[in-house]
Structure formats: C-alpha cells, structure tokens
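Data card: per-record layout.
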Amino acid sequence: MRIKRLFLGLLLLLGGCQATHSLKAPDIDYSSQQLPAINVSVIGMPSWMLRDELRRRGTFEEVKAGRSEDGYNVLVVANSDVGGIQPQMFLSAFTLFLVPVPVSFDSTVVFSLSHGKQILGVYTVKNHTESWRGAFNASGGQFEHMRLISDTFIAQILKDQPFNREALKRAASL
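The structure for this 174-residue chain is written out next.
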C-alpha cells in the first residue's frame, strides 16, 4: 500500500496540475451556424496558434492568413505572453521536465472584424491562466489558454451576428 501511494505521489509530481483560467468555456453550439471565410492577421502572439484554434472549431468556412481587399478580415492585436520565454521554464528544462514549475499566461486580445474597409465589430477577450509545466504537461496550459480565447471570440460573433447585419444592409441598399 505504501508503494502505491509513493507511486501516485510521484506521478502527480511529474504530471503537474490542472490549468486554471479566468475565462469560463462558452456554452454555445459552434456548429449551429456556418460563417463565411475569414482572413486573420495577428500582432502580439503566435499567429499559427490562433489560426489553428479558429480552424479547429469548424465554424468558419475557411481561416486564411493575411488580408483580403474584398473579403472578411480579422485583425488581432494582442498584449500576451503566450509563446514567450518564461525564466522558470529553464529550471524544468534543465531537469528534463521532471521538476514541474509554475507558469502563467496573461492575454488581452482585441479582434477587429471588417469587410473590406468597413468595420463590422470589435471584440475584446481577456484570459489569465495558471498552470504547472512538467513532464506530462509540456505546454503548461498555453494551448487551453488559446482555445478559450478563440472559443470566446467565436461565441461573441455568433451572439452578435455581424455577418447577418451586413447582409441585411446590402439587401436594403439594392
């Protein structure tokens, strides 16, 4: 019995802990509506991480990099430490990630949705994540951090319906 407790304690130490987030996961059906393709430009955080998370949900027809003159664009400006180097991670790396270290990610992300030059909406998402980075939690919760940010942005768009408002304006002008 003593060996089992020691083994369980060692496994918990090596695995790190569950990440805690300031954002709650949005309660929304992401497949309820298919949104048009968007072009995403990102400043202040790893762009590939955000685009991958937006693709993962499948809510948008397509998520592309860059900007389009006649399509839908999302300019993302972030004040974030995701993807940055945190000094305490060196301790974990020097021990081959056997010693878990506390890590945290803090992001304030502003999404500006536009069609051509017309701005359809501006959405702000803030998240703070605290976790442990170790042998079994190598990302330290940064992927969950990004997933919550992208899911909250999609939930805000589905609630606000900026694409439907623009379609109604175009129909009224015809």
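Known properties of this structure: The CA atoms of residues 104 and 130 lie 4 Å apart. The first strand starts at residue 20 and ends at 21.

See the next section for split statistics.
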